[in-house]
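Hi again,

Forgot to attach this to my earlier email, sorry! This is the prediction with fe (iii) ion bound. I've pasted everything inline since the attachment limit keeps bouncing my files.
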Amino acid sequence: MGIFIGNHVSSSGGFEAMGKRALDVGGNTFAFFTRNPRGGSAAAIDPGDAEKLIALMKEHNFGKLVAHAPYTMNLCAAKDDIRTFSRNMLADDIKRMEYIPGNYYNFHPGSHVGQGEEEGIRLIAQALREVIDPGISTTVLLETMAGKGSEVGKTFEELARIMDILGNPEKLGVCLDTCHVWDGGYDIVGDLEGVLKHFDDVIGLERLYAVHINDSKNPLAAHKDRHEKIGQGCIGAEALKRVVSHPALKGKPFILETPCDDDGYREEIRMIRKWTE
Ligand code: FE
Ligand code: FE
Ligand code: ZN
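Structure tokens for the complex follow:
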């Protein structure tokens, strides 16, 4: 089995259109925004269109998809109305994901905006408790964050706390973003083994479901979160090659969120496939 690699595709035109876009650049998985990333509105779902994507994925042996929540979702916002808005969006997204059952839904845990990390963690767990039901087919993923501003999820410990509060439900896991962990201070260039060992000790590698594979414009522990093209940033090609080739990450979907156009993604996907042959 080869690597599952793809990019973040535009969601315009619906499910099948996204699958075709992914295939066009050589992908066999992809990420997409479940709704307007900077707003909240969601397009109506056509169940027939979802069926077509499911058929396309089967035909082309796709790995799991990694949907992305909108950036406006902040489950631990200081303001009540933003929290309510975010919880409603999360609940609606989880329902919508059931049209393409069995895939992943990734979100930024949130920014506590001055309330403190403890309160942030508590609020995120509380919101998740309402939606993480053993009956859902989707696995919900907390994304590792760069630690920009008051972002929760900049350490593996913070993510583990959220999952612990909820009793580590089966349908909850982690998506590791290489740019974010690097910016967060985890040296995946000098000590990938040590970082993965630490992840395993704190969270458990069995709870790592997906990887966002990005280079970073900034040095280790910069807490900036600015993605760079593969091999053109501070992480570099060699280190990213070790990530995509690592046996502990085998079979997981790798998603590119690099500043590329379609030709750029096609080239990155081709290069990463070659690395892992
Ligand atoms: Fe993200
Ligand atoms: Fe990411
Ligand atoms: Zn990012």
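The longest strand covers residues 172-177. The pocket of fe (iii) ion (ligand 1) is lined by residues 68, 108, 143 (CB under 6 Å).

That should be everything now.

G.
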